[in-house]
Amino acid sequence: MIAPSSGHFLCAGGFSVANIRSSRHFGEDVLRFVRTHPLMYTSVYPVNRKPLLLLSDVAYTFTSIAVDIVPASDGEYTVLFLGTDRGTVQKVMILPKGPEETEGVTLEEVEVFRVPSPVKNIRISSKRHQLYVSSDAGVTQISLHRCPVYGDSCADCCLSRDPYCAWDGKACARYTPSPMR
């Protein structure tokens, strides 16, 4: 397989095919890759043209993504649900760090299946407040707001920074924005 690198094609072993001047000289494998990966050539960049989340030295690969925009009393938050090849889903909130900079904060990681199986797809149902996760093992659903996991105190609830949750005076519970007046 090949992948683009600095305007050149690069083979999996690191061999460059930059000296090929025309696609007429590409083999069928190269052309098949280009046809099946069109988004690699017309990238969609984040607003600030920088990665929203940058991780290094992790023992997993992200396999799927779903994005939710969560209304809050102080604005809106972007929440990423990231499926992994280990069968987990990470909930990551993107926070503004400066005028043109953001920071990803991992709120929780959930083991979705009893037997670890790479996550293939993630879908959000805003109406049902559920996350649907599929793998070769099957499909399961988890709540977007798992507020009780953050503890029984106001401080723990607030420190979780989870935009789906708020302290209701008694417990960490699902946050429901009040209608605009």
Automatic annotation (TrEMBL):
Gene Ontology biological-process entries: axon guidance; neural crest cell migration; positive regulation of cell migration; semaphorin-plexin signaling pathway
Stored InterPro entries: Plexin_repeat, Semap_dom, Semap_dom_sf, Semaphorin, WD40/YVTN_repeat-like_dom_sf
Pfam family, one: PSI
UniProt keywords, alphabetically: Disulfide bond, Glycoprotein, Membrane
Any one annotated GO CC term: plasma membrane
GO molecular function: chemorepellent activity; semaphorin receptor binding
Top-level taxon: Eukaryota
Gene3D superfamilies registered for this protein in UniProt: ligand-binding face of the semaphorins, domain 2, YVTN repeat-like/Quinoprotein amine dehydrogenase
Keyword Disulfide bond set for record: yes
Residues in Sema domain copies: 1-144
UniProt-annotated location(s): Membrane
Protein name: Sema domain-containing protein
